[in-house]
Design goal:
- It is a single chain.
- This protein has 295 residues and is mainly beta.
- It has two helices and 23 strands.
- A hairpin with a 2-residue loop joins strand 7 and strand 8.
- The structure holds calcium ion (2 copies).
- The site of one calcium ion (CA) has 5 residues, from loops.
- One calcium ion (CA) binds next to loops.
Length: 295
């Protein structure tokens, strides 16, 4: 019940963002009024985040981590590819549903992905349980992230290389269903999550070299017959500590908070770290936690 209330609040926030008085281009001014930065937690992973309201689950490129909400590590799996049928070296954004973590996994090298698979892990132990087969004929060529739509029983995958579509699977059978065109297409997508009747999409489309902020977009997904959906800017992340690479995102079902993973400090070329910016000798990964503000 509590979760439903918060999802309803979030839906209002999203609706207010999307349908407000201002045009999408002006919407940046409304950022602070929609989500207010509450706290920042440094974590080990650089790819994705999910929460069941009790813990934060974070993916690194080759590891899974579980934190309590104060940021204390409570579990990790540093060999998450053990048992997988296909060779893998990269985990993207993740989701958690019904005690299981869903992870988009592939072999990623120099900006190209192959061996795409949706692997499922036990959220308690972070150990691999099973995998959902990818449908190559869908046209998807990379998996940067995935999201569970629990209400409608669907699983979505997104593609960093060619983001024109998101790809929908049946959650219970694992069968591929359809691809939905994003109009327009957010460039360099990183993470996705479902909140109410919307899908949120983070895009690494701000140029860190020029101190440009990345963005979060959103699109409606309740109409399962839709071949395409209208995409709008939801938020420009100008309050990150330094412009860098936005990664995964999630909405906390217990609080309605928006949780966004972002990396700073490393220079990224073709999706892979190549040296550091001035003042940094390592890449820093942080969860930015925003509380919804309903006026
Ligand atoms: Ca990523
Ligand atoms: Ca960026």
């Amino acid at each position: 019940m509590k979760a439903m209330i918060y999802i309803s609040v979030l839906s209002l926030v999203i609706a207010a963002t999307a349908c407000g008085r201002k045009s999408p281009a002006d919407r940046n001014d409304d950022n602070a009024a929609t989500y207010r930065l509450a706290r920042v937690i440094e974590v080990d992973g650089r790819q994705g985040v999910a929460t069941d309201g009790e813990f934060y689950y974070v993916s690194g490129s080759t590891a899974l981590y579980k934190y309590d909400k104060q940021g204390r590590l409570v579990a990790e799996n540093t060999s998450p590819f053990d048992g997988l049928a296909l060779e893998a070296n990269h985990i993207g954004d993740i989701d958690v549903h019904d005690g299981e973590i869903y992870a988009g996994i592939e072999w990623f090298e120099d900006g190209v992905g192959r061996n795409i698979q949706a692997a499922v892990y036990d959220a308690s132990t972070l150990q691999w349980v099973r995998s959902i087969d990818w449908q190559p004929s869908s046209g998807q060529v990379e998996v940067c992230g995935l999201a569970v739509d629990a209400e409608r029983g669907k699983l979505y995958m997104a593609d960093w290389v060619d983001g024109r579509y998101i790809y929908r699977y049946d959650l219970s059978t694992g069968d591929y269903e359809d691809k939905i065109q994003l109009r327009p297409v957010p460039a360099l997508q990183q993470g996705i999550c479902v909140a109410g009747d919307s899908i949120l999409i983070s895009a690494d489309d701000g140029e860190a070299d020029r101190d440009e902020a990345d963005r979060i977009y959103w699109a409606p997904i309740a109409d399962l017959s839709a071949a395409s959906v209208d995409v709008a800017v939801m938020r420009t992340m100008s309050d990150f500590r330094r412009a860098g690479e936005i990664e995964g995102l999630t909405v906390d079902p217990s609080t309605g908070e928006l949780v966004v993973l972002s990396n700073r400090g490393a220079r990224i070329v073709l999706g892979m770290p190549r040296g550091f910016y001035d003042g940094y000798d390592r890449e820093i990964h942080e969860l930015y936690i925003y509380e919804p503000v309903v006026e």
